[in-house]
From TrEMBL:
<dbReference type="InterPro" id="IPR027417">
    <property type="entry name" value="P-loop_NTPase"/>
</dbReference>
<dbReference type="Pfam" id="PF00005">
    <property type="entry name" value="ABC_tran"/>
</dbReference>
<dbReference type="InterPro" id="IPR003593">
    <property type="entry name" value="AAA+_ATPase"/>
</dbReference>
<dbReference type="GO" id="GO:0005524">
    <property type="term" value="F:ATP binding"/>
</dbReference>
<feature type="domain" description="ABC transporter">
    <location>
        <begin position="11"/>
        <end position="254"/>
    </location>
</feature>
<comment type="similarity">
    <text>Belongs to the ABC transporter superfamily.</text>
</comment>
<dbReference type="Pfam" id="PF08352">
    <property type="entry name" value="oligo_HPY"/>
</dbReference>
<dbReference type="GO" id="GO:0016887">
    <property type="term" value="F:ATP hydrolysis activity"/>
</dbReference>
<dbReference type="InterPro" id="IPR003439">
    <property type="entry name" value="ABC_transporter-like_ATP-bd"/>
</dbReference>
<dbReference type="InterPro" id="IPR050319">
    <property type="entry name" value="ABC_transp_ATP-bind"/>
</dbReference>
<keyword id="KW-0067">ATP-binding</keyword>
<protein>
    <submittedName>
        <fullName>Oligopeptide/dipeptide ABC transporter, ATP-binding protein, C-terminal domain-containing protein</fullName>
    </submittedName>
</protein>
<keyword id="KW-0547">Nucleotide-binding</keyword>
<dbReference type="InterPro" id="IPR013563">
    <property type="entry name" value="Oligopep_ABC_C"/>
</dbReference>
<dbReference type="GO" id="GO:0005886">
    <property type="term" value="C:plasma membrane"/>
</dbReference>
<dbReference type="GO" id="GO:0015833">
    <property type="term" value="P:peptide transport"/>
</dbReference>
<dbReference type="GO" id="GO:0055085">
    <property type="term" value="P:transmembrane transport"/>
</dbReference>
């Protein structure tokens, strides 16, 4: 199958100053990442804050420019930012943010905002737009009377539904969802995730679902990529990742996910400080917190390689043989 979107060796470096008069210091927010998402598939991207997952999401859409590597959509390279070709392509790739209030215009009604893409991208004739807006609002579970409401008159969950309806109006092939439910109440999170999953299946949309919450990712992703300080450290199908994580960092993350009806046992508590992108440790960036670290880990960056089960992992200790024994 041809991938809908493919990234190869993506690099993004920010120049960060330490203190007001400090010299700029390069921080590799995304460090040689390659991935592919097939049509209709959901790729979950997980990792702690500072792992580079949001930067990666913006790079896939071309909003954040890659300083190395390439993104291809439907086999073609991404056009330069803000060109007419890029704008046309952006209709096919929509972004859903964490904060729906920031994503919506407080001065416009919900109907006006859901209808915006129909008008901008001339998707359907003007006389059919109102009916399509009503259809989109119904699809995300908003009531007809909420069409004339303003964003501040809706709850957080309803606002996120409105953002999703607006994204769907453009008939996208790809949704990049960056922490789409983390600002919502837990009871509403499940409703929005289920709705996204249903809409995705109905419309055959591919999705990149970025989250620090593995419970949510487990519910929605077909495949999962685990990021640590700008790099993917393990990638596999969702079942393989959650049933037999192999990379020590993935093991720690997965061990903290509660399974309904089971006591949380064998939880791995990570030692040391959370990652700081501005001071990346040499060798394997995870080595200061890794229970399996040895000399080679402090000296050499591990390559991401196939270790069986359709899984890739970047670790000097976890290899194809160790993964097979663990399975
Ligand atoms: Fe741990 Fe070494 Fe593997 Fe890094 S390479 S995850 S430090 S065992």
């Amino acid at each position: 199958m041809t991938a809908l979107i493919e990234a190869s060796d993506l690099v993004r470096i920010y120049q960060i100053r330490r203190g007001l008069f400090g010299r700029p210091h390069p921080v590799r927010a995304v460090d040689e990442i390659s991935l592919a998402v097939n049509p209709g598939e959901t790729l979950g991207i997980v990792g702690e804050s500072g792992s580079g997952k949001s930067t990666l999401g913006r790079m896939l859409l071309g909003i954040d420019t890659a300083q190395g590597g390439e993104v291809r959509f439907e086999g073609k390279p991404m056009p330069p930012l803000r060109t007419p070709e890029w704008r046309a392509l952006r209709a096919k790739m929509q972004l859903i943010y964490q904060d729906p209030l920031a994503a919506l215009d407080r001065r416009l009604t919900i109907a006006a905002q859901v209808g915006e893409p129909l008008e901008i991208h001339k998707i359907i004739p003007k006389q059919h737009q109102a009916a399509r807006v009503a259809e989109l609002m119904a699809a995300v579970g908003l009531r007809p009377d909420q069409a004339e409401h303003y964003p501040h008159e809706l709850s957080g969950g309803q606002r996120q539904r409105a953002v999703i309806a607006r994204a769907l109006a453009a008939r996208p092939k790809l949704l990049v969802c960056d922490e789409p439910v983390s600002a919502l109440d837990v009871s509403i999170q499940a409703q929005v995730v289920n709705m996204l999953r249903d809409l995705q299946a109905e419309n055959g949309i591919a999705m990149v679902f970025i989250s620090h919450d593995l419970k949510v990712v487990r519910n929605i992703a077909d495949r999962v990529a685990v990021m640590y300080l700008g790099r993917i450290v393990e990638e596999a199908s969702s079942d393989v990742i959650f049933q037999s994580p192999q990379h020590p960092y993935t093991k720690a993350l997965v061990s903290s996910v509660p399974v309904p009806g089971k006591r949380l046992e064998g939880r791995v508590i990570l030692q040391g400080e959370p990652p700081n992108p501005a001071s990346r440790p040499p060798g394997c960036a995870f080595h200061p917190r890794c229970p399996l670290a040895r000399d080679i880990c402090r000296a050499l960056v591990p390559e991401l390689r196939q270790i069986g089960d359709g899984r890739t992992a970047a670790c000097h200790v976890v290899t194809g043989e160790t993964a097979a024994i663990a399975a």
